[in-house]
Amino acid sequence: MSKRYDKILKEILKDVVDTLITRVIGLKIVKSTAIETKLQITNEREADFILRVELEDGSISLLHIEFQATNYSKMVYRELRYWVYLTEVHGIAPLQYVFYIGNEPITMKDSLSTKTTTHKYNLIDMRDVDCEKFLYSDKPEEVIISILCNYQKKGVKIFIREILERLNELVPEETLRGKYIRQVEVLSQLRDLQGEVSKEAEAMALVYDLERDIRFRQGCEQGMTKGIEQGMIKGKQEGLLEGEQRGQLKGLLEGKREGLLAGIELGLELKYGLIGVALMDKVRVLPTVDKLDEFKNLIRKAASLDELKDFLGKNV
Fold this sequence. Notes:
The protein has about 325 residues and is of the alpha/beta class. The protein contains 14 helices and nine strands. The chain folds into three domains: about 5-130, Trna Endonuclease, Chain: A, domain 1, CATH 3.40.1350; about 130-205, no CATH class; about 215-315, no CATH class. The model has no long low-confidence stretch (mean pLDDT about 80).
């Protein structure tokens, strides 16, 4: 899993960690406090989530939670290193849980036993968790996590439609609902269901209309205005050498380019989140204003991020 995708995944899952602890792990927590996740072991590693929690019986515990999308053959050794470090630093032996969210059968070992050392962590396959634990929640952050769970008794089409219908009911505001639907799409890639999610969202008319978003329009206008002002100043300066009219025309073109870049960046963020914004390095080297305009229009029409990547691959 790439670091960029890992970051996006962690951003989505951070809102449901407490729910996973109570509904899947089964711990009753009174209070939880996040702890620094960067660990100075031999080489610096960053854990997904480390929480100091107060349980219902008044006891204090340390929870170390990881999300794993692929089978990592040395996971038990990684967990042991975390256990030793956290126990030494905090004086509390952590409870360790790894949530496997991949699509292949689990091959990772959850325990280690040698003549001198034994260690075990808790390995949870999200495909074994009943989707109804999250699907009928009143919190959209919890509804989206159901895409990772066991839906076999429902059938894939009915299941996806239920997720989208719940989000539609819970989140009437279009922009925010679009954010949650994008998150479902990101997570659905882990289950090879992105195509089905996109089709159902489109069939239910839940596809986000970028052109109607007032922030997108304002971003384009503000970027255009600022770019033209800067371009005109620069154009007048260059006009001393090449003729003021040509310099001003150059300034207008630069202004239009800046406006399009501002609108494109905001459009990518609104429709695809951080994974979309990551394309801006390539967008900025598109050779002409016409290509930028074409790309901006494609953002609105594209059914997936792959279409945008294909366009950039052909034109950059």
